[in-house]
Amino acid sequence: MSAIQQFGMIHSQLVNYIIQHNTSMIIPHSIFQTVLRIPSCISFNNKRVLFKRMLIHHIQQQMQQSGRGMNSIHLSVSRKRILQDTFSALGGKSVSEMYNRLSIEFKNEKGVDAGGLSREFFISLSNSIFDQNYALFVPCQNRTTFQPDPRSLIMDQNNVQIFSFVGRIIAKAICDEMLMDVHFTKSFFKHILGIPLQFQDMEGVDHQMYNSLLWVMQATSEQLEQAETTFEINMDYFGQMRSIELVPNGKNIPVTIANRAAYVQLMTESRMSNDIKQQIQAFKRGFYQLIPLRLISIFDVNELELLISGLPDIDVEDMKKNTMYEGTYTEESNVIKWFWKAAESFSQEERARLVQFITGSSKVPVGGFIHDRLKICHISGGDRRLPSAHTCFKQLDLPNYSTYEILREKLLFAINEGGEEFNIV
User: Fold this and answer.
1) Partners of 184 in the beta sheet?
2) Residue 179: per-residue pLDDT
3) Which one, out of 19, 201, 217, 281, has a CA that is 20 to 30 A from the CA of 207?
4) Same domain, yes or no: 9 and 46
5) pLDDT in tens, 18-31
6) What domain range is 26 assigned to?
7) Which residues are catalytic?
8) Residue 276: burial class (beta carbons within 10 Å; 0-12, 13-18, 19+)
9) What phi and psi, each to the nearest 5 degrees, are found at residue 374?
């Protein structure tokens, strides 16, 4: 860690104060660009302010280079064909044209777009993007997050253009400060931000494969030898199983203690990158046309979801009423009482991060958590261990901390830094 990063970590309150009161001054300074790369150093609100200023500056440069002025685009769409109509109208627009404000009209409906119709348009478009009839994205096992359907290009090669357009339209919503009901997997958000994947990200995509990879990382030499695992993967291809070698001659290379880390990384890349490589590249190509990676990368994975979909209004009392306890914990356990006390004390952003940590998404179920109950389980480790989570099961594993202060400190660290990654052997 550099001296600048150490300063940012130790004096985060001072850094945030400077940013909050001198945003126009610090943007050009590389020292603050370095500090921005420290996830827990800059608050989300300050990052949003900085991002907005940098994005406006970028758009102004793009418009000057194009020789165009800012105008508005009248967009008339049918609610039943909102994705098709939007793609037909905007798919061929240049980058500079896409920066223009949209004026939305829903066909056969009266109304003037003073902002409300645009907000409704982006939310309705979100629902259409994830409509299973289009086979663009598939829900993961936690039922709240999505990633590209590996079969989408097999069914229609033209979907490459649609993925690029989806990336563009989500970036457009960010530029226009409009929210979309978009909740991707952690791994897909990492792709957008250019962050390397870890096998722990698999838990939110394929829990069975995650457990298999976790077993490989923890198995003894004898267990690996008995399992006879090799460097190949079996894929379900429209009902037919196909074997794909992860490396040349992979079917003849056994997984051992010495090479298991490489095997796990290759399996991770195969499942979360290679299977949907074209879709990822197309999406990023469209997204980066409006918002370059150097601008969006100031956010972490959780912040990017909040930037796109907004900070949810989380009712802690509703969470509490719809949480089950396992192991030695009950509602009367001190650590459980401290947990809810900490949740009540959290800011809106911290509550959103808590829900993200437990469920894999900031999305609050329609009608409240009664439709998607949470679970808190006891784990050993005491004050030495961080909380961890299993997003597929909406489960929080919570050590029996000795004081409220320790619980709150550990919980905040976990939800801000991704504490589930610290408990893997």
Assistant:
1) 146
2) 93
3) 281
4) yes
5) 666 665 544 544 55
6) 3-66
7) 392
8) buried
9) -100, 165
